[in-house]
Amino acid sequence: MALLLTIPQWSLGRDRVLTSAVEDLIRGANVSFHYCRSDVDLNRTVTAFSGKPNHVIGTLYELCSHYFDRIDLNRHVGAFPRIGALDVCPFVEVGGGGWTGGKEALLSVARAFGERLARTYDLPVFLYERSEGVRSESELAELRLGGFGGLMGKKLSSDYGPTQVHPHLGVTYTGVRDFVIALHFTFADADSRIAKRLAGSVRRLRQEGDERFLGVRALATYLPSRRRGLVSLNLTLPDLTPVDPIVEFLNQQTRKMYRTPSPAHLVGAIRERDVPGATKLAIAPEQVVSEVRTEA
Fold this sequence. Notes:
By secondary structure, the protein is an alpha+beta fold. It has helices spanning 16-28, 53-67, 103-121, 137-145, 147-151, 193-207, 243-256, and strands at residues 3-6, 9-10, 32-39, 44-51, 86-94, 125-127, 172-176, 181-188, 216-223, 228-235, 265-267, 270-271, 288-289.
């Protein structure tokens, strides 16, 4: 059977005991652990794990039950724009060969998770990417732009749950999407100006049709405690855009601005097929997702 990969991203990152407990819970569950990393400036924890669908969903519910009461977005401060305690929770098919029942069976897993999450926590849940109905991607991006504070007092067109933002959990995005490679690229700097220039260059080259940047999304952020600029990259078409040319471009541009870049960091997981084109990344063995089908 095909396996399910999820990359839940949580609005917590400064409580070391709590973030360590998140990793311990995932490692102790009946899933394959791929990634868990927190950042104090972003105040965010990214996790990744895969397995049989019922095991993955069970682990997600356990994480929510343990940590939702420890997250209050009213007190949350971080460099990354956030709208939910469980900010985003994408599902990706891995293992190859497709799901029994086809795409609809995969979508039904995400919908069932979203519906139960909304019902259990009285939480507005939005479906995104391939799970969307009539909602456009631009509408969801606009909703995220205002952050948690921008949602207060608004009537929301959620797919599940109430139409008002939860008072301390915000809202959650979940859904099915294709595989994405996520990278963090950092360098010493006094503010975010160079990061914004680099991210702008990536977006411009993508719009101009540069094949190195097809489907590449870039966001600039600043990490004040480390005095470092950050460019976050999502490679949404990894079969067409290998990692190495993108990292080499960023290294060259950063040095032209008299900044010394740190090695690019792989956020989350990577497929086996993408590893040969990502020689400039330090990839932990557990970050590599097997694409071999398992028996049902």
